[in-house]
Amino acid sequence: MRVLGIDPGLTRCGVGVVDGEVGRPLQLVAYGVVRTASSLAVPQRLVAIEAALEEWFEEHRPDAVAVERVFARSDVSTVMGTAQASGLAMLVAARRGLPVALHTPSEVKAAVSGSGRADKAQVTLMVTRILRLDAPPKPADAADALALAITHVWRGGAQRRLDAALAAAGAGAPSRKAALK
Asked: Is residue 166 assigned to a domain?
């Protein structure tokens, strides 16, 4: 499965692509950061982010997309920009019919480091180890995007198998209506 992880932001939007399956070593495909100048008006920044994300989707053809779930911070303008970039990521994925998963920062930290309270340095270190990289991915936004992709491969793959098993078990069982007759 190929997952595109997106750490949304108006100034820096981290992107990272990972190939893998649960129980097998993951492979780094690519990572980077989409940047926009704070001097641009928000609509122009959003257009630039969308165009860059379209390129990432087109070039890397992910099977699924993992986006960081926006959570409340003290600075409303930061939350708004993050939410706007997050919406763009989901829109670009939805246009392609791709599944989108939202993962909280603490869920991602716990998945890659074992602690939901890990700091950015710990997450980056673990991403470097998990993907067997020679150097840590920089900047931190790119490392966070890779952590999102890793989390989704590990957790999303397990969830897919569980959903498939439940669907298979339900397919052989009589419907509730039939059972009541």
From this structure: yes
Confirm whether 136 is domain-assigned: yes
Tens place of pLDDT per residue across the chain (181 aa): 999 999 999 999 999 999 999 889 999 999 999 999 999 999 999 999 999 999 999 999 999 999 999 876 667 778 899 999 999 999 999 999 999 999 999 999 999 999 999 999 999 999 999 999 999 999 999 999 999 999 999 987 556 665 666 778 876 555 444 444 4
Which positions are catalytic? 7, 68, 141
| Domain carrying residue 17 | 2-170
pTM of the entire predicted model: 0.87
Task: State how many domains the chain has.
Answer: 1
Structure tokens at 56: 């990432």
Query: How many residues are recorded in the chain?
Result: 181
CATH number for position 61: 3.30.420.10
Whether residue 181 is contained in a domain is answered as no
In angstroms, rounded to a whole number, what is the distance separating the alpha carbons of residues 116 and 143? 16
What's 45-58 look like in SS3?
A: HHHHHHHHHHHHHH
